[in-house]
Structures are given as C-alpha cells and as structure tokens.
C-alpha cells in the first residue's frame, strides 16, 4: 500500500468506519475498492459498534522487537457483531483464560513508543466486554 494512502486511511480505521455495499449489504473493514461479494463499487460508510467475539486466538510468548515487556499477551481475530473480522491484540485479561466466543470490545490504545524517535504509536486493541 502506498504511504500517503495508508496515512489517509488511519482516521477511518481508528474510528472503525467500514464500507457497506449498497447492492448486497456486505460490510468490509477496512473498506475496499469493490465489494468482495458482488463486485459493486457503490458503498456507504458505517461505524462498527466495536463489539464482537473471539473467532480464534493465540498467546504470544516470544514477542517481536518493541513488545518484549508485554509478553505473554493474546492476539486474536475478533468477529465484529456486524460481520467483519479484525485481528488485534487482546489485553486487560489473563491470556491463559481466553476462549473462542468470549465477548470483546474495541479500545483505542497506545501500542508502543519508538525509542529512537520518541514517536508514540496507537492502534486498536480488544478487551473483555464486561457489560459496562
């Protein structure tokens, strides 16, 4: 993906804005140029609820550079209530107790800080939905 396009799409990703096909109503996140179901290029923007359930998950015990202080942590594919699936870190819980089907909710969080530049990177993570 081209860098300028990536930066333009960041706000939509952070706000969980998805594209819903006007023809077949399929929801894509992130948005696509054409619908993967019917090929239409006519979409409307919708905001996802931020709620979903764990479709599958794993526990990261040996982390990539910059995440060593967070191990062990959960990574999972969360099936949003609206249908799209999002891969993200699962936090604020014991990763050993995660189960397929557990309810999750989106949180906008600090991911890490780049030590050489001091730039703080943000993205979405998911936390257990405790019904608050």
Structure description:
With about 130 residues, the protein is mainly beta. The chain has two domains: about 5-45; about 50-130, OB fold (Dihydrolipoamide Acetyltransferase, E2P) (Beta Barrel). The chain has one helix at about 5-15, and strands at about 15-20, 25-30, 45, 50-60, 75-80, 85-90, 105-115, 120-130. It has a five-stranded mixed barrel. Strands 2-1-3 form a three-stranded antiparallel sheet. The model has no long low-confidence stretch (mean pLDDT about 90).
Structural features:
132 residues; mainly beta; OB fold (Dihydrolipoamide Acetyltransferase, E2P); 2 domains; five-stranded mixed barrel; three-stranded antiparallel β-sheet; 1 helix; 9% helix; 42% strand; globular
What is the count of distinct domains?
2
Spans of at least 5 consecutive residues whose pLDDT stays below 50 are none
Count of helices? 1
| Oligomeric state, counting identical vs distinct chains | single chain
Mean pLDDT: 88
Shape: globular
The CATH class of the largest domain is identified as Mainly Beta
């Amino acid at each position: 993906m081209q860098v300028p396009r990536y930066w333009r799409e960041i706000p939509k990703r952070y706000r969980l804005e998805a594209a819903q096909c006007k023809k077949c109503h399929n929801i894509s996140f992130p948005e696509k140029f054409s619908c993967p179901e019917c090929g239409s290029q006519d979409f409307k923007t919708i905001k996802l609820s931020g709620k979903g359930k764990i479709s599958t998950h794993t526990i990261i015990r040996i982390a990539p550079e910059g995440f060593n202080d967070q191990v062990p942590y959960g990574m999972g594919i969360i099936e949003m209530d609206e249908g799209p699936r999002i891969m993200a870190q699962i936090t604020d819980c014991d990763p050993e107790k995660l189960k397929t089907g557990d309810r999750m909710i989106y949180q906008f969080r600090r991911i890490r800080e780049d030590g050489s530049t001091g730039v703080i990177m943000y993205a979405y993570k998911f936390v257990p939905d405790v019904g608050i």
